[in-house]
Each structure stands twice: as C-alpha cells, then as structure tokens.
Amino acid sequence: MMEVLAADIGGTNARIAIVKGRHIEEKRVYACREFKDPFELFKRFLDDYGKKLPDFGCIAVAGRVEDNRVKMVNRDWIIDGDKLASLIGLKGLYVANDFQAAAMGVSILSEEDLVFLGGKPSKEHSPKVVIGPGTGLGEAILVPYASGYEVLPTEGGHVDFAPTDELQIGLLRFLKRHFSHVSIERILSGPGLVWIFKYFCEKEGVTPVDSFKEILETPKGPPAISKAAINNQDEICVKTLSLFCKILGQEAGNMALKCLSRAGVYIAGGIAPKIHTFLEKSEFRKAFEEKGRLKDFLKEVPTYIVINTEVGILGAGLLAERKIEKMK
C-alpha cells in the first residue's frame, strides 16, 4: 500500500496526516483561524513534516464540491485541489465533502470504534447513514456497491428544521427572529448548542453568570455547555443538551427513513464522541423511533456513536487510494 496525504478540514480545526491503508503514519492538528488561506495551512504542515509529501492526496472539506473545488460553508476559504496540488508539489489532490470522507471512514470501522445505541443487528448489503454535528451538520449516505460501499454526499444539514412539539415550536420562533431560514444545522451544531442555551435563558428569564457569558460566543462556549450538562452543574445546560440530543434523534430517524438504512445510522462529528455518555441516557433513541406508522421499522434500525475521532482522515485516505486505483 502506498502513502497518501489525507486532510480533514472543518470550520474550526484542520487535521492533516500521512496515511497508509488504515494506519495513520503521522498527523498534525491546526486551528484554522491561525491561517489566512489553505496554502498557508499546508505550508505549515510541509514545514512540520520535514519530508517529501506523497504524490497523491485527498482533502475532506465542509462544503459543496464542484470541479475539485469548494467554498467552505463555515470559513471564508476557497480550496482548489488542482491549484493547491501544484503549490505544494503533489501530482494529484482530490477534494471531497467532509462527510463523504467520514462516511467512507465509517465503512471500514470495527466494533471497538462504535458505541451501540439500540436497534437490531445491522443487515448486510443495506444502506447506512452517517450524520454528525460539529461546527456545522454533516450528513451522508453509504450504499452497497460491489464488495463494499459507495458514498452519496449530501447537504442535508441545510434542510428546514421541523419542530415536533410546543417547546421546539418556541425554539423555531426564537431562531426566526435571528435567521431568515432556520435549517437543522442551526440547532445540531456547536453554534446550535449556544442558540438552544440562549432560548432557554430567555424562556425562563435566566441570565448566565458573567464568566459563562464571556465564553459563550467563543469556540469554548459549546464545550462549556456540554461539560456543565454532563456533570449536572447547571439546569439550563442540562435542558440544552437534552433538547439537542432529542432533535438529533429526530433528524437521524428522518435520514433512516429516507434511505431505509437497515445497516444502521452512525453518529459521527466532533460533538458526539464527547457527549456519548449523556447521549446514551438521553431521549435520542426514543425520538429516533417516534415516526408514527413507521415506528416498527425504526425500532429495528441500529444506531451507533462513532468514537473513533480519526474517521474523517481514514476516509480521506481511502478516497485517495480509490482515485489512484481508477487512474491505473
């Protein structure tokens, strides 16, 4: 197996690695805000790595990819694979949607990379769904193809938020005061956690303490809310994360119905591995199954939390290998 360059670039962090098969040879993690453009980011990796880069690679990016080029959704960057390959000395650099890579990574995970959340065992040769809240919300579908799986990337995070009870209708009304379009990503993401927290504060007439208010609008805000909820330190944080998990279950169930994912729904992304103990005890699975006439079907669909945080890089490496194979 040959080495490839594999990168997973989100709105907050960039993970860049040298991958060989299912093994990560070397990896660096960078804060995207420290770089003015993608070339500066990869130049830093090149300097840190200190060796010749592999000839081929794949970058997984949050955004819609066209002609090997993507404008990031959550950062003001345009990544052009062909141009970037030329600048850093690669023969080829494939740009993929971040959840296309995450889904590809899920296709090669083992049991120790997952936490089971209910349902019956996966049915072979059936579709899978990968959904993952992080800086944004990624969604992708895996369909059986030949001896493995092929990925159908989506921009499902930008579909409408569909509330299911009075509490969620109130959340929708609250968010409509701030956004012309309330997508599911406005809720199921790091920033979404902050918006749910603000909703509960307004609804219950609570003012956050000054120390919490200071970090709320920074990258430290969502983890602080999650941590306070997991440790049962703040009632508003517990309500926030509980509602987040319930809506995540609803959206996971929606995706399962849309592609009849009898092989399972996999919760990936940057948030799920950090809250998996809370998620296991939440209303996630109940909300996943509550789909009226299709409830019995969803009771059988297994759900998993992906706790392997390298799934995006492993998937990007596999996509690069597939591109190389097609070139032969």
Describe the SSE topology.
Elements: E1 3-9, E2 13-20, E3 23-31, H1 38-49, E4 56-61, E5 65-66, E6 69-71, E7 78-80, H2 81-88, E8 92-97, H3 98-106, E9 114-116, E10 128-133, E11 137-145, E12 148-153, H4 166-176, H5 190-204, H6 210-216, H7 221-230, H8 235-259, E13 265-267, H9 276-281, H10 284-289, H11 295-300, E14 303-306, H12 311-327
Parallel strand pairs: 1-4, 4-8, 10-13, 13-14
Antiparallel strand pairs: 1-2, 2-3, 5-6, 6-7, 9-14, 10-11, 11-12
Walkthrough of the structure:
By secondary structure, this protein is of the alpha/beta class. The protein has 2 domains: 3-103 and 310-327, 2-Layer Sandwich (Nucleotidyltransferase, domain 5); 110-307, Hexokinase, domain 1 (3-Layer(aba) Sandwich), CATH 3.40.367.20. It contains 12 helices and 14 strands. It has helices at 38-49, 81-88, 98-106, 166-176, 190-204, 210-216, 221-230, 235-259, 276-281, 284-289, 295-300, 311-327; strands at residues 3-9, 13-20, 23-31, 56-61, 65-66, 69-71, 78-80, 92-97, 114-116, 128-133, 137-145, 148-153, 265-267, 303-306. A 6-stranded mixed sheet has the order 9-14-13-10-11-12, with helices on both faces. The chain has a 5-stranded mixed sheet with strand order 3-2-1-4-8, sandwiched between helices. The protein has a 3-stranded antiparallel sheet with strand order 5-6-7. A hairpin with a 2-residue loop joins strand 2 (13-20) and strand 3. Helix 5 packs across helix 7 (221-230) and helix 7 (221-230) packs across helix 8. The chain is globular. The two termini are 14 Å apart. 45% of the residues are buried. The mean pLDDT is 92.
